[in-house]
Design a protein that fits this description.
The chain is of the alpha+beta class and about 150 residues long. It has one domain. The protein is built from two helices and eight strands. Strands 1-2-3-4 form a four-stranded antiparallel β-sheet, with no helix packed on it. The protein has a four-stranded antiparallel β-sheet with strand order 5-6-7-8, with no helix packed on it. The longest helix is centred in the N-terminal third of the chain and has 16 residues. The protein is elongated.
Length: about 150
Protein backbone atom coordinates (compact mmCIF):
# COMPACT_ATOMS: atom_id res chain seq x y z
CA UNK A 1 0.00 0.00 0.00
CA UNK A 2 1.55 3.31 -1.12
CA UNK A 3 1.59 6.26 1.25
CA UNK A 4 -0.18 9.46 0.26
CA UNK A 5 2.45 12.13 -0.63
CA UNK A 6 0.29 14.89 0.91
CA UNK A 7 0.70 13.32 4.36
CA UNK A 8 4.49 13.16 3.85
CA UNK A 9 4.49 16.82 2.86
CA UNK A 10 2.38 17.88 5.87
CA UNK A 11 4.58 15.80 8.16
CA UNK A 12 7.71 17.43 6.76
CA UNK A 13 6.24 20.92 7.24
CA UNK A 14 5.30 20.12 10.83
CA UNK A 15 8.80 18.79 11.49
CA UNK A 16 10.36 21.94 10.05
CA UNK A 17 8.15 24.11 12.23
CA UNK A 18 8.93 22.15 15.40
CA UNK A 19 12.67 21.75 14.78
CA UNK A 20 13.13 25.20 13.23
CA UNK A 21 11.51 26.99 16.12
CA UNK A 22 13.99 28.05 18.77
CA UNK A 23 11.26 28.06 21.40
CA UNK A 24 11.30 31.83 21.86
CA UNK A 25 7.78 33.16 21.90
CA UNK A 26 6.84 36.55 23.26
CA UNK A 27 8.07 37.10 26.81
CA UNK A 28 5.45 38.36 29.23
CA UNK A 29 5.79 39.66 32.76
CA UNK A 30 2.90 40.76 34.96
CA UNK A 31 2.11 41.80 38.48
CA UNK A 32 -0.50 43.59 40.56
CA UNK A 33 -0.78 46.03 43.44
CA UNK A 34 -3.79 46.85 45.59
CA UNK A 35 -4.57 50.36 46.83
CA UNK A 36 -3.91 51.11 50.51
CA UNK A 37 -7.63 51.04 51.29
CA UNK A 38 -8.11 47.78 49.38
CA UNK A 39 -10.73 49.24 47.02
CA UNK A 40 -8.72 49.16 43.79
CA UNK A 41 -6.20 46.93 42.06
CA UNK A 42 -3.80 47.69 39.23
CA UNK A 43 -2.69 44.83 36.99
CA UNK A 44 0.44 45.56 34.97
CA UNK A 45 1.46 43.41 32.03
CA UNK A 46 4.58 43.91 29.94
CA UNK A 47 5.06 42.07 26.65
CA UNK A 48 8.47 41.86 25.00
CA UNK A 49 9.28 41.32 21.34
CA UNK A 50 8.80 37.94 19.72
CA UNK A 51 11.95 35.81 19.58
CA UNK A 52 13.92 38.10 21.90
CA UNK A 53 14.94 37.68 25.50
CA UNK A 54 13.09 39.96 27.90
CA UNK A 55 16.45 41.52 28.89
CA UNK A 56 17.16 42.55 25.27
CA UNK A 57 16.71 46.26 24.60
CA UNK A 58 13.58 46.06 22.45
CA UNK A 59 10.10 47.50 22.20
CA UNK A 60 7.93 46.60 25.18
CA UNK A 61 4.15 46.83 25.24
CA UNK A 62 2.83 47.90 28.65
CA UNK A 63 -0.75 47.14 29.61
CA UNK A 64 -2.41 48.87 32.57
CA UNK A 65 -5.73 47.66 33.99
CA UNK A 66 -7.31 49.29 37.06
CA UNK A 67 -10.33 47.58 38.58
CA UNK A 68 -12.25 47.66 41.83
CA UNK A 69 -11.24 44.69 43.99
CA UNK A 70 -14.86 43.49 44.16
CA UNK A 71 -15.15 40.08 42.48
CA UNK A 72 -17.49 40.97 39.62
CA UNK A 73 -16.50 44.60 39.10
CA UNK A 74 -15.81 45.96 35.64
CA UNK A 75 -12.48 47.63 34.80
CA UNK A 76 -12.35 51.37 35.47
CA UNK A 77 -9.32 52.05 33.27
CA UNK A 78 -7.52 50.09 30.58
CA UNK A 79 -4.56 51.59 28.70
CA UNK A 80 -1.70 50.38 26.54
CA UNK A 81 1.67 52.04 26.02
CA UNK A 82 4.77 51.27 24.01
CA UNK A 83 8.34 51.99 25.08
CA UNK A 84 11.85 50.73 24.44
CA UNK A 85 13.68 49.13 27.34
CA UNK A 86 15.64 46.15 28.52
CA UNK A 87 14.20 44.00 31.35
CA UNK A 88 11.43 46.45 32.20
CA UNK A 89 10.45 46.48 35.87
CA UNK A 90 8.21 48.81 37.88
CA UNK A 91 7.13 50.19 41.23
CA UNK A 92 3.44 50.93 41.75
CA UNK A 93 2.65 53.28 44.63
CA UNK A 94 -0.85 54.18 45.82
CA UNK A 95 -1.53 57.16 48.08
CA UNK A 96 -4.30 57.57 50.67
CA UNK A 97 -6.65 59.19 48.09
CA UNK A 98 -6.36 56.17 45.73
CA UNK A 99 -4.08 58.02 43.33
CA UNK A 100 -1.47 55.86 41.64
CA UNK A 101 2.09 56.45 40.40
CA UNK A 102 3.82 53.72 38.40
CA UNK A 103 7.51 54.15 37.68
CA UNK A 104 9.01 51.85 35.03
CA UNK A 105 12.76 51.26 34.96
CA UNK A 106 15.48 48.93 33.75
CA UNK A 107 19.11 48.23 34.63
CA UNK A 108 20.49 48.40 31.11
CA UNK A 109 20.88 46.00 28.16
CA UNK A 110 21.11 42.29 28.96
CA UNK A 111 20.77 42.86 32.72
CA UNK A 112 17.78 41.12 34.29
CA UNK A 113 15.82 42.79 37.07
CA UNK A 114 16.93 40.11 39.53
CA UNK A 115 20.62 40.60 38.69
CA UNK A 116 20.36 44.39 38.78
CA UNK A 117 18.63 44.39 42.16
CA UNK A 118 20.99 41.77 43.63
CA UNK A 119 24.04 43.78 42.55
CA UNK A 120 22.42 47.07 43.63
CA UNK A 121 23.00 48.56 40.17
CA UNK A 122 21.64 52.02 39.28
CA UNK A 123 18.38 52.07 37.35
CA UNK A 124 17.32 53.90 34.21
CA UNK A 125 13.95 55.64 34.48
CA UNK A 126 12.01 54.60 31.37
CA UNK A 127 8.43 55.77 31.93
CA UNK A 128 6.34 57.29 34.73
CA UNK A 129 2.55 57.06 34.71
CA UNK A 130 0.33 59.01 37.11
CA UNK A 131 -3.37 58.30 37.59
CA UNK A 132 -5.54 60.53 39.77
CA UNK A 133 -8.81 59.16 41.09
CA UNK A 134 -11.73 61.49 40.38
CA UNK A 135 -14.18 60.76 43.21
CA UNK A 136 -16.98 62.78 41.56
CA UNK A 137 -16.90 60.69 38.38
CA UNK A 138 -15.61 57.46 39.94
CA UNK A 139 -12.81 57.06 37.39
CA UNK A 140 -9.06 57.39 37.03
CA UNK A 141 -7.62 60.23 34.98
CA UNK A 142 -4.10 60.06 33.57
CA UNK A 143 -1.84 62.99 34.44
CA UNK A 144 1.56 63.73 32.98
CA UNK A 145 4.43 63.58 35.45
CA UNK A 146 6.59 66.71 35.43
Amino acid sequence: MARNPIWWCLGAILLIIVVGSNGCGRPAVSGLADSDDGKFRVVITVLGEYRHAYSDRTRKTVGILITPTAASAKPILQKEYSTTASALDWNAVWDKQSNLVITFFDYGPKITSADGAAKNLPTNNVLTLVYRFDRNEGRFVERSEK
